[in-house]
Design a protein that fits this description.
The protein contains 27 helices and 3 strands. It has 529 residues and is mainly alpha-helical. The chain has 2 domains: 414 residues, MFS general substrate transporter like domains (Growth Hormone, Chain: A, Up-down Bundle); 64 residues, no CATH class. Strands 2-1-3 form a 3-stranded antiparallel beta sheet. The chain is elongated and about 80 Å long.
Length: 529
């Protein structure tokens, strides 16, 4: 590895630390949901709002981050984003009530603009032959963040039950969920400090006619000869002055760009509607539905993080070899199979309470009204919705919710390994394809002068699709049932697979400027010129 390549990689890793914080912030809520739903007596829609509040913030920031990065610079926006992560982590950990928690998480969602700005920055400092792997560093850090959150949640849950003096003195036993949210403060502070040491994007500098500064940075990143060639390519595609934001938005919808915009927005929706953020943000809740209990659900969520990391590494190694489109086809096929497996697992489940199970519940949960619960002994329900409805009608909403994990464990009869394999297969397929490929392709597809506003629009659509998935999932789970919910995600995977095969171009191995020329002339991917 040359010293210039090493510099580019170091910069990419620094900027991609924001991906780690995003991943941690996004998935740490999976361990918090059960605690706050009982403590604040939340209904399905309130739970959905707590989980999805950051995505609402992401929609707002997504509308402005790209244009702001075009105006003030990629580096400046990244520093603001890091500060927002830090403020959100502090306020979430010390939130005095449900409303304050929603607001704090919304502020953190404003920082989710890093999902768009970081790939732009990394794409703009990378050579074409390394760009896919370089941008994938951001996605790799995201999945490391996911995994770290699952490990942290499991560790804190076990520590809170340890009964040690340390757990009591730190308040981990009584404020477990606050510690889960508060751990984000440390990486957010480190990220903020590290960003002051990176240079501005050379393509942004060139776009603002600061060509000497741009070339100096490219020389450090690529060497003299490659820097000169890059500057020639950049100069050939840049307008003399950046157009106003509104004009650039109008240009996105022009005949030469509407095809590209449609492809990017398609990717933005496909990445979310197959249900990935329902899995990431509700993993322990989903595993609890299979009747394994709270501790096992948290431990199984760790496997989600591990699988995510492993298959993201595979994607990073193959994305510049196999190409973007083959990875998507393989991944979406895997998602379809995995979601079908999950749906099958829940469709074949039976729900029944035995006298022995109720007796055990009386021992392990003395505050549970087992006298009322005994009225359900011997009855059988065909699905999880009917079983949970019977529990609520018999015990009341508060008791049914407080003890839901134990009640599901006692009355659910199914092969929980089918669901575990299905979920892990889904995560592996996503990490191998939709996870990194979307973030790699989006900045590749937009031309230099439209990349900021184009990524902003893509971020809005992606965040809105993500918000819908997160917000409605608790309702889906308790109204449609787990089997129908996963079957719906499988249907979306079929539609997505057809669209990818039919429409998506390949971008592997081409410079950003070459892609701009080919896509504007609709020569890529078999489109007519």
């Amino acid at each position: 590895m040359t010293s210039t390549s090493a510099r580019s990689i170091r910069l990419a890793i620094t900027v991609a630390l924001g991906g780690f914080i995003f991943g941690f912030d996004a998935s740490v809520i999976s361990g918090v949901v059960g605690f706050i739903s009982v403590e604040y007596n939340l209904n399905d829609w309130q739970i959905g709002l707590v989980v999805s509040a950051p995505t609402l913030g992401a929609i707002l920031s997504g509308a402005t981050a790209g244009p702001l990065s075009d105006r003030f610079g990629r580096k400046t926006l990244l520093i603001v984003i890091a500060a927002l992560y830090l403020v959100s982590a502090i306020c979430s950990a010390f939130a005095p009530n449900y409303q304050a928690l929603v607001i704090a998480r919304f502020v953190g969602g404003l920082a989710f603009a890093s999902l768009g700005i970081a790939p732009i920055y990394i794409a703009e400092i990378s050579q074409a032959t390394m760009r896919g792997r370089m941008i994938s560093i951001n996605q790799f850090n995201i999945v490391i963040g996911f995994s770290a959150a699952y490990f942290a949640n499991y560790f804190l849950l076990q520590f809170s039950h340890s009964g040690t003096d340390l757990a009591t003195s730190l308040g981990v036993d009584t404020n477990t969920w606050r510690w889960m949210l508060g751990l984000e403060i440390l990486p957010a502070a480190i990220y903020l400090l590290m960003l002051f040491g990176i240079p501005e994007s050379p393509r942004w500098l060139a776009m603002h006619r600061r060509c000497d500064e741009a070339r100096a940075i490219l020389v450090k990143l690529m060497g003299e000869d490659k820097a000169d060639r890059e500057m020639d390519d950049i100069d050939a595609t840049l307008h003399k002055d950046p157009a106003p934001v509104f004009q650039r938005i109008v240009t996105l919808f022009s005949p030469g760009m509407i095809w590209i915009l449609g492809i990017v927005l398609m990717l933005s929706v496909i990445q979310q509607i197959t249900g990935i953020n329902a899995i990431y943000f509700y993993a322990p809740t989903i595993f609890e539905q299979s009747g394994v209990g709270t501790d096992a659900a948290f431990s199984q969520a760790i496997f989600v993080g591990i699988i995510n990391v492993i298959f993201t590494i595979f994607a990073m190694l193959l994305i510049d070899r196999l190409g973007r489109k083959p990875l998507l086809i393989i991944g979406l096929t895997g998602i379809l199979v995995s979601m079908s497996l999950c749906a099958y697992g829940f469709y074949t489940a039976k729900y029944q309470l035995t006298a022995e199970a109720v007796e055990e519940l009386a021992t392990t949960n003395p505050e549970l009204n087992t006298e009322q619960l005994s009225l359900l002994i011997g009855r059988q329900w065909e699905n999880d919705v009917a079983y949970k409805k019977a529990l609520t009608e018999t015990l009341g909403q508060q008791q049914a919710r407080t003890h839901q994990s134990h009640l599901l464990e006692a009355g659910t009869h199914m092969n929980a390994y089918i669901v575990l394999i299905g979920i892990l297969g889904f995560v592996a397929s996503f990490a191998f394809s939709l996870g990194p490929v979307m973030w790699v392709m989006q900045p590749e597809l937009f031309p230099n002068h439209l990349r900021g506003v184009g990524m902003a629009m893509a971020g809005i659509v992606n965040s809105f699709a993500s918000f819908v998935v997160q917000f409605v999932f608790p309702w889906e789970l308790n109204t449609l049932g787990a089997g129908n919910t996963f079957a719906l995600y499988g249907l979306f995977a079929v539609i997505s697979l057809v669209l990818v095969i039919w429409i998506l171009p390949e971008t592997r191995g081409k410079s950003l400027e070459q892609l701009e020329f080919e896509l504007k002339n609709q020569k890529l991917g078999g489109q007519p010129s």
